[in-house]
TrEMBL record:
Record-linked SUPFAM superfamilies: P-loop containing nucleoside triphosphate hydrolases
Protein source organism: Neobacillus vireti LMG 21834
Domain of life of the organism encoding this protein: Bacteria
Protein name, as recorded: ABC transporter-like protein
Keyword field: Amino-acid transport, ATP-binding, Nucleotide-binding, Transport
PROSITE patterns from the UniProt entry: ABC_TRANSPORTER_1, ABC_TRANSPORTER_2
A matching Pfam family: ABC_tran
UniProt record similarity statement: Belongs to the ABC transporter superfamily.
């Protein structure tokens, strides 16, 4: 689904990514794990086109996309849920969901769009109860459910999630991660970046560990769990949580 070769990203004198290379398997969930400032967000932004790399290649379905604009990548099926819940906060919940169809409007009739939004309300009843409220008045957890729903309404083939659990109550985290597991079963390829590895390990098939812009570990879930048994690795990369 996605292949990155020798990716470098610099912010002035700061080397945020230092030649990383990864392979993302189609239909799987890949975790990107690392401490704050390790380069996780930069990597996802390079994939979605928010950042143009200084060096390296990004192949999406064997096509190089590292110079493609954001809108072209969205049309090709890449959706990015950024850290910080970037919503249209002065618009209603319902209007935000309609914007999830932005690149699909020419192919979707109104009846079908409303049917899919109704399915969102059935999955997350709190959004249905507050569909006429401004998105900015929602709690942090409700905003996260909304932004993920917007991304899914764009019908992505590759979904990028940056710290989806950040600042959420445990019950909402459980909702989000259960939804991601269901999306995987529907064939969506997912890359999730997390500081807390224990969360990502619930659903991931494979993972990479980042430190200061470099990949310092990779493997399947069992291997990454074994890394967590190291007190040093657990403290530096995984926080204090245990699976």
């Amino acid at each position: 689904m996605l292949k990155i070769n020798g990716l470098h990203v610099n912010y002035g004198p700061i080397n945020a990514l230092k030649g990383i290379s990864i392979d993302i398997a189609e239909g799987k969930i890949t975790a990107i794990i690392g401490a704050n400032g390790s380069g996780k967000s930069t990597m996802l932004s390079a994939i979605s086109g928010l950042i143009i790399p200084d060096q390296g290649e990004i192949y999406y379905k064997d096509t190089p996309i590292q110079t493609k604009p954001v809108e072209e990548r969205v049309k090709r099926g890449i959706a990015h849920v950024m850290e910080g819940r970037r919503l249209f906060k002065d618009q209603s919940v319902h209007d935000n969901l309609l914007l999830g169809f932005y690149f699909r409007n020419s192919k979707e009739n109104k009846k079908n769009m409303l049917k899919q939004i109704t399915e969102v309300y059935e999955r997350f009843p709190i959004l249905g109860q507050k569909k006429h409220q401004l998105a900015g008045t929602l709690s942090g957890g409700q905003q996260q459910l909304l932004i993920i729903s917007m991304a899914i309404l764009s019908k992505p083939r590759l979904l990028l999630l940056d710290e989806p659990s950040l600042g959420l109550a445990p019950i909402v985290v459980d909702q989000v991660y259960q939804y991601l597991d269901e999306l995987k079963a529907m064939g969506v390829t997912i890359i999730v970046s997390e500081q807390m590895a224990a969360l990502a390990m619930r659903i991931a098939d494979f993972g990479y560990v980042l430190e200061r812009g470099k990949i310092v570990g990779k493997g399947d879930v069992q291997y990454l769990k074994s890394m967590m048994d190291s007190d040093e690795m657990s403290a530096v990369y995984f926080g204090e949580a245990k699976v």
